[in-house]
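User: For a reading group we're discussing how well predicted structures match intuition. Take DUF7144 domain-containing protein. Before you show the prediction, I'll give you the sequence so everyone sees exactly what went in.
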Amino acid sequence: MNRTQNGWVIFAATMLLMVGAINLIQGVITMFMPTYLLAAEGDVLFFGFTLWGIGLVVWGLLLLATGFSLASRQNWARVLGIVFAAVNAITQLAFIAAYPWWSLAVIAIDLLVIYGLTVGWSSEPEPSYASGRADAQEGLRAPKQGTRGRQESRGEHAL
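Assistant: Thanks. Here is the predicted 3D structure of DUF7144 domain-containing protein, as structure tokens, for the group to look at:
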């Protein structure tokens, strides 16, 4: 991974950590202070405030875990980060009635996360993977010992 890709992944990890913290805070506020939201009970999509709050807390923890995994350069976290950011952006649409500017800001951050995780994604294998692969292929080309005739040892020379 080159420096530019590494910088974008760290940027996306930081943004994902921010979005996870925002969701966690939003979930706690929704659970314990439903009057803080500007929407009436009937305006919340699908469920009541308490269930939305619990869901947002769990979701925020998942986003935080993914952000920390990205920061520690786990390759699987890159795909998970893209999926979670996309789902989070769609989920924020449910809160547009309550806080339109807040939801739009979180959606913008989610789009930056998706961009940061996809901008430098190379189809080329990473150098460490490529060197391991080259070593494995070299091992396949080397002759196997003991398969043809007498093998030379120290002190013996083939005539």
